[in-house]
Specification:
- With 338 residues, the chain is an alpha/beta fold.
- The protein folds into two domains: 201 residues, DHBP synthase (Alpha-Beta Complex), CATH 3.90.870; 99 residues, Threonylcarbamoyl-AMP synthase, C-terminal domain (Rossmann fold, 3-Layer(aba) Sandwich), CATH 3.40.50.
- Helix content is 28%, strand content 17%.
- The strands form two sheets. It has a ten-stranded mixed β-sheet, with helices on both faces. Strands 11-14-12-13 form a four-stranded parallel β-sheet, sandwiched between helices.
- α1 crosses α4.
- The longest helix is centred in the last third of the chain and has 16 residues.
Length: 338
């Protein structure tokens, strides 16, 4: 086994301990550049089943395979089309997941019963160190209960699972939302989950059009594609900026406390101080105005506001530009049904 260099955020003993746990069939949470993952040895079916059990995840929801290098891809994939080689060469390591034909020897527990497999190479130094030391692929969905807000820090994982799993330290995740998922199973590439690598980015590398996932598409199944997902316990409403104030007034009239996530500051700071009434704004968080900054902070802010005890979280609707697709998708799913 290759001995990986150990990044500053955790030491060699941490990596060794995590590898020992994984080889023993246990789960280990680790950081990636997108969100923290809940990892199991991808060749160990019993360990894979523990992921579904701990998360409360449906068995037909596939897991994403994380590998250390492009050389390992043929161990897991039956066929590597030229389009996959082009995208991998350009975006890996990084926040892009490719859906390809599953190698026959790969467990269908990993793929949610499908003949396709979702795979990527993470860019985070801790993830890379762990993968190289383990010498095997890691199956890893986000390290949270199924449907909850994904974790972007070590503390978030501990809030979800306590001491049930070992967590490798790696700081806050750089990207903050899950990877873009692209299916290469058909003639035309399809975006199955938007991420910070956009459809235009994919099309530019391939030199051909790329399709978006149709609302009626059910195959292949991929992580994070259910109607409601990435959701805090507090109901979320996504509203245009111009109606936030009136929405707060409606909530006040109904006796509701609200929390707000918006790209602008409140028009009147005084609204935050009216704690002498049963209905007020518990907290107004001003998010970054740019898509990358908003995405980086999104899950941490939703978790922060979810702890306040508000009756509702009001989120300012984000722009329609392509660079906001991933954020818009996560907010749509977080607010579904609300």
């Amino acid at each position: 086994m290759q001995k990986a260099s150990v990044p500053d955020t955790c030491d060699a003993a941490d990596i060794d301990s995590a590898v020992a746990a994984l080889r023993a069939g246990e789960l280990v949470a680790f950081p990636t550049e997108t969100v923290y993952g809940l990892g199991a040895d991808a060749r160990n079916e019993q360990a894979l089943l523990k992921i579904f059990e701990l998360k409360g995840r449906p068995a037909d929801h596939p897991l994403i395979l994380h590998i250390a290098s492009l050389n390992e891809l043929t161990e897991w994939v039956a066929e590597v089309p030229q389009s996959a080689k082009m995208l991998a060469s350009h975006f890996w390591p990084g926040p892009l997941t490719l859906v390809l034909p599953r190698h026959p020897r790969v467990s269908k527990v990993l793929t949610g019963g499908q003949d396709s497999i979702a795979v990527r190479i993470p860019a985070h130094s801790v993830a890379q160190a762990l993968l190289r030391a383990l010498g095997s692929g890691l199956a890893a969905p986000s390290a949270n209960r199924y449907g909850h807000v994904s974790p972007t820090s070590m503390q978030h994982v501990k809030e979800e699972f306590g001491d049930a799993v070992q967590v490798l330290s790696g700081g806050d995740c750089d990207v903050g939302v899950e990877s873009t998922i692209v299916s290469l199973l058909d003639e035309t590439p399809r975006i199955l989950r938007p991420g910070m690598i956009t459809m235009a980015d994919i099309a530019a590398v391939l030199g051909e059009p790329v399709q978006a996932r149709s609302p009626v598409d059910t195959v292949p199944r991929v992580p994070g594609s259910t109607l409601q997902h990435y959701a805090p316990q507090t109901p979320v409403s996504v509203l245009p900026a111009e109606v936030l104030s009136s929405a707060i007034e409606v909530a006040n009239a109904a006796g509701e406390c609200v929390a707000v996530l918006a790209r602008h500051a409140p028009a009147a700071q005084g609204v935050l101080a009216c704690a002498d009434t049963p209905a007020f704004v518990l907290r107004w968080v001003q998010a970054p105005a740019d898509a990358a900054g908003f995405a980086h902070d999104l899950y941490a802010r939703l978790r922060e506001l979810d702890k306040l005890g508000a009756q509702r979280i009001l989120v300012e609707r984000v722009p329609e530009e392509p660079e906001w697709d991933a954020v818009r998708d996560r907010l749509q799913r977080a607010s579904a049904g609300h």
